[in-house]
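Comment on both lines for my students:
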Amino acid sequence: MTSESRLYTFSPETQEKLRKFRLGTSRAKDPQAVVYQIDKHSLEIAQADGETYTNMQELADELPDHSPRFVLLSYPLTLPSGRLSVPYVMLYYLPVTCNAELRMLYAGAKELMRNTAEVGKVIEVTEAEDLESIEEKLGGAT
């Protein structure tokens, strides 16, 4: 057992939501995103608002300006070869304006969240506006 898994926790309900989201979005026609946060007192990682976002602009509007978040994203796109792909990634949203305590809190849980959510890749995002160009970061055809 790693030190992160002893420090941070996931409720059985959250683990089931993570599994269902991963399995349920693999054939989605639209982007699907859910936001997770860490409770500073209990150190439990849980879904922030119960929403599943399908619009990157709405998601960007909902992300806080001064607090990090983990965003699980399933994003259907067409590769330069013309093939359809649905990458499942974690966006590690870490705004430059957040304080050192929150930065450390989320940095310590990043790998645990990545492994528990079973994402293929972690993409660091410092500004909510970066979500508008996420397709480029995922390697889609422009």
Observations:
- The CA atoms of residues 78 and 84 lie 5 Å apart.
- The mean pLDDT is 89.
